[in-house]
Design a protein that fits this description.
heterodimer; A: 175 residues; alpha+beta; Alpha-Beta Plaits; four-stranded antiparallel beta sheet; two-stranded antiparallel sheet; 5 helices; 48% helix; 16% strand; B: 476 residues; mainly alpha; globular
Chain lengths: 175, 476
Amino acid sequence: MGNEVLHVLYDDDDVLMKAVKDIREKKHHIEEVYTPFPVHGLDKALGLEGTKLAITAFIYGFIGLIVSIVMMNYIMIQDWPQDIGGKPSFSYLQNMPAFVPIMFELTVYFAAHLMVVTFYMRSKLWPFKKAENPNPLTTDDKFLIEILIDNNKKDLINFVKTTGAIEVKVIQKKA
Amino acid sequence: MNYIFTKNIRNTSLTLIIIGALGLAYGFLSTPSSVSEAQDMVSVSDHKEGHESPSSDDHDQDVIETHQDDHAIKTSGHNSEGSTEIHQEDTTSLTSQHNDKVDSQEHEVDHGEHLLHQLQNRPWAALYVAALFFFMIPLGVLAFYAINRAAQAGWSIVLFRVMEGITGYLLPGSITIFIILVLSVMHLNHLFIWMDPEVVAHDELIQGKSAYLNTTWFLVRALFYMFGWNIYRYISRKISISQDKGDYLKNHKKNFRLAAGFLVFYIYSESMMSWDWIMSIDPHWFSTLFGWYVFASMFVTGITVIALVTIYLKAEGHLDFVNASHIHNLGLFMFGGSVFWAYLWFSQFMLIWYSNIPEEVTYFITRIEDYNLPFFGMLAMNLVFPFLVLMNRDYKRNNFLIVMAGIIIVLGHYIDVYNMIMPSAVGDQWYFGIPEIGGFMFFMGLFILFTFKSLEKAPLLASGDPFLGESKHFHY
């Protein structure tokens, strides 16, 4: 029983949004929603917790900033000081304006790349991973809601049919 | 739905205007009228600089009189740091002609004359900085408004009337600026040294620019820009109000086309305005991205003021249709605008700092040596503070934090304008004193008065706009 789920297919994102709200109102558990594109406001309708990716982005950017400062200090001040444009590299602070573009770039670089890596890890995605997508139509123009079936299968099926679904299927999930 | 101009606002603005006017008057009355008076003032105000001792004995007085005419010509160009080079050349050439003693006396006269000009400029500069700063707010808002019209933005419809209210200060602001420019042309002050024919006669660089930098052409251009901005504001406002009554799509298209055309005019005229009214105060110095830099400053200030006025009106219970997402969007623009401003500021600074060409770098040397605190303090106020406060999503939806960040941004950009004008006008004789605060209060009073007066004249909701529904339901 516990492994049985309902796959409900929709063909419009507005209908989907309404269906998600209705299903949640009836206290049914939505396992997952598959959509061909990001549907605005779906995360809120599903009651998902806000992402913490922004916080990690700030931390990564900060790390990038520190790395660039340490790096430029080593390269331009300690290891091989040069006199560029009449500005001898004796002090990091006095040469700092020249390093700002590098500080900026590395901040962005670290934030962007590490954020992508974090996102992939968090979503359990990696190269050559087999797709989890249950229905290829959701990569085209259809939307799918996966609902956990509880005690009353028939009522649930009848109810979701009223929400504008174009197809309802009972699927036995592998354990 | 209409906003009614309250007694509270009227009293506040009138109080500001009166106190500000008194402050400005004090500034004008307390300027020195002679060199010795100027030197007395400076030596009294700071004892630390002992070398500027007052030359009050008879012998020195004689020297001043005999050499005054000779030096009026040489020194009149000295209120710009760009001409410090000439100053040094002058003194070196003098050394070869006169003996050391005479030279040092000449130098003292030179210095006193220079000081007098700076101190006489100070109330004018305080007036001009504040007038320009408050004029640039409706100008920035006008650009933001036209961009929203031209982009046919859906979210900002509920804020259109607030923007139109703020641009209500555009016409009075233009008039105040124009009066100050005319007074400068009439040689009542020495803000623009290139207007002085005696300076131009001895300055080859300004002579080369005189086809552009001459008083007639200068005033014609000023009239031309002001006409363009004000006529757009007038027509667009008229269309916007007639849209409330009907012909929604036709009026929408009209305003769309008008805004697109206006933006082309604006970006040229704004850039030239910044050369004329700000950069020409240093006639030797130039920067190619100065127009953008000034634009960024007025753009972010304008958006900040939109947010402040919106939050004020909402707190008074007038803007029910403005939700947290609209404030959030304005917060995003404040954040983005601050970063954009800093980007342009740094682009200008770093290129000049790195290449280290004397005629360019003098601009920043004066600012770093004589204006260290306002110059770097402005970076903290305009970049670091809004960057850290407005980064968080929830903070942008918090009215209190938007107001806090907004006040800092507005003051920070006042200091930005201050840094553009003051170093060339008064040199190291700057101070945030009664004339500066008075000027700020005076124009803030005018600004508040005209903004809220024009808010009163139309309903606060542009109810005829075809995108109104989208704007009301805007959520982010």
